[in-house]
Amino acid sequence: MNVRFGIVGCSRVARRRFLPALHSSKAGKFLFAGSRNKEKAKQYALEFHAEKHGSYEDVLADERVDAVYISTPPLSHAEWVLKAANAHKHIICEKPAFPDYGTAREATSVCRAKGVRLVENYAFKYHPQHQIAKTLAKNKLGEFSRIEIKYLYPFPPDGDIRLKPELGGGVFHDSVGYVAATAMFHFEKPPVSVWCRQKIDQGKNIDTHVSFRLDFGAGVVAEGEVEMGAKEYASRYVLYGKSGELEVCRAFAIDSDKPAELVLRVGGSEEKIVVNPASQFQLLIEDFCKELESRSSHKDFEADLLLQHKVMEAAARSIKEKRVVALSEIF
């Protein structure tokens, strides 16, 4: 039986990414569109063939809704995660799910107590190119010990929530989480310590640039930069090993109908590897639904979320206190 979804927040990412993926999925069904704007809810329901539309509260009150996708402004995520959990709805929440580690820990505890699953939507990890890159790096690069990550993009259009400090705007909350998620995906463990620096655009009153270094011990590091308002667009990372390097050219935001490209450089030669198009959102939805329908849990989404927020808390503390912060300090 399909998992029946409602959405809490008719956002741009819901319309461009989540709902097309849900519509294409055989595992989920779009049942209820929820928005503060009733006309927008109606528009989304018509466009993506939902049976119902209404307010956020209407979505949570509907007994037929099994799970919700939350894409409200970031600083309101915690409120609606808690309300959804208390309404016994499973949850996919847009990133960042929470503003800090303490809130993440509290919300996760409530979800576990209510018997609902919670996943933070770092859908990029589901694109097959990353597992292919990990396997290639292990087989071709020897022991890889460094990741360099760059995520650079222009300013979003006026009115975008990423430009509104009161709604949690800025590059740190919007994009730095990709760094932690990428590094932990490849090194398969949390960092020992985090160093971060931030630049503030005084005119816009938001942070627009973050440089970082995650130290995993024994010479294993992830470093690079994230920038909003850059002149160029870059969404890539490079894995460095004893024998060469492997570049993932379009890492975080890739259209479901576009192939991905990896570049392997070993011994002075260069090889391009093309990965077939894939919908990372659809793959996440289907994995989530599979977990819900399974009699026993195979993945600990909640532990992954908590670790992600622990690293982000260390990064935020590093920025505030201008020092390297050990992950063991966050509890």
UniProtKB/TrEMBL annotation:
List UniProt keywords, sorted A-Z: Oxidoreductase
- Does the keyword section mention Oxidoreductase? yes
Q: Which domain of life is it from?
A: Bacteria
Q: Which GO molecular function annotations are given, in alphabetical order?
A: nucleotide binding; oxidoreductase activity
Q: Which InterPro entries match?
A: Gfo/Idh/MocA-like_OxRdtase_N, Gfo/Idh/MocA_domain, GFO_IDH_MocA-like_dom, NAD(P)-bd_dom_sf
Asked if the record carries the keyword Oxidoreductase, the reply is yes
Q: Which Pfam families match?
A: GFO_IDH_MocA, GFO_IDH_MocA_C3
Sequence ranges assigned to domain Gfo/Idh/MocA-like oxidoreductase N-terminal in this UniProt record = 3-121
Alphabetized Gene3D superfamilies for the sequence:
Dihydrodipicolinate Reductase, domain 2 (3.30.360.10), NAD(P)-binding Rossmann-like Domain (3.40.50.720)
Ranges where the GFO/IDH/MocA-like oxidoreductase domain occurs: 131-246
Q: PANTHER family from the entry?
A: OXIDOREDUCTASES, TRANS-1,2-DIHYDROBENZENE-1,2-DIOL DEHYDROGENASE
Q: Which family does it belong to?
A: Belongs to the Gfo/Idh/MocA family.
Name used for this protein in its record? Uncharacterized protein
Organism per entry: Candidatus Taylorbacteria bacterium RIFCSPHIGHO2_02_FULL_45_35
